[in-house]
Amino acid sequence: MSLGNTLENGKGYLILTKPNAADPGPLAFSAFALTTFVLSIHLIGSSKLTAPNIVLGAALFYGGLIQILAGMWYFYYGNTFGATVTASYGAFWISYGIIKIPAFGVEAAYETKENFENAIAVYLAAWTIFIASLRTTAAIVILLFFAFIQLLLLTIGNFIHSNGSTHNDVIVATGYVGIITALIAWYNSLAGLLTKETHFISLPVLDLSHYNFKH
């Protein structure tokens, strides 16, 4: 399933305008899902993943580089919406990974831990944007909504830490929301893989392009 392309009549999945080329959608969704899942496990503190290092590999390469490449592939299709969303999230993951790498000196540039947490919160707030997507599918709308909620909670959690508080319930809640977000992203990826050319079944995604939301 692809971001923002037209839906095939009577079917529950999206098709591309260049049928001889591969659809970057499932790859983009998978990259987003896995990276979000690993980050969420870290935020929850499960399996003693208290250091962010385990997230960096996925953030820089799978969630970062691969999503940017998928975004460029969307541009090839003339899919501006898919390209913008996918490449932007790819850039977010790379930038987030760089912030967490000590060699880049981002955290060291701030006098205190609180100032650093406040700077991250401001940075995350800039990414906390819900992208209007009502003319794609319900599955994509739900995914972007949960991604928005996750970023919002992560922003709030960092603002709380910037005030010197060690209360991290918001960060833990962010992790649980992130796991849900990752599962929804994997669902979108699987929906894109289960096409009529390769499988006898397809996952419902609810085409919203046929609905008129104008008042």
Provide key terms for this protein.
single chain, 215 residues, mainly alpha, 0% strand, membrane, transmembrane helix, AceTr, 7683_t:CDS:1
Plain-language structure description:
Pfam families: Gpr1_Fun34_YaaH. It comes from Diversispora eburnea. It is a multi-pass membrane protein. With 215 residues, the chain is mainly alpha-helical. The chain has one domain. Helices cover 61% and strands 0% of the residues. Helix 1 (25-44) runs parallel beside helix 3, helix 2 runs antiparallel to helix 3 (80-100) and helix 4 packs antiparallel against helix 5 (138-162). The two termini are 29 Å apart.
Short description, anyone?
This is 7683_t:CDS:1. The chain contains six helices and no strands. It has helices at residues 25-44, 53-77, 80-100, 113-127, 138-162, 169-193.
Helix content: 55-70%
Overall average pLDDT: 82
- Tell me, what's the shape? elongated
Span of the ends, CA to CA: 29 Å
Strand content: under 5%
Sequence-ordered SSE layout with sheet pairings:
Blueprint lengths: L24 H20 L8 H25 L2 H21 L12 H15 L10 H25 L6 H25 L22
Helix pairs in contact: 1-2, 1-3, 1-6, 2-3, 4-5, 5-6
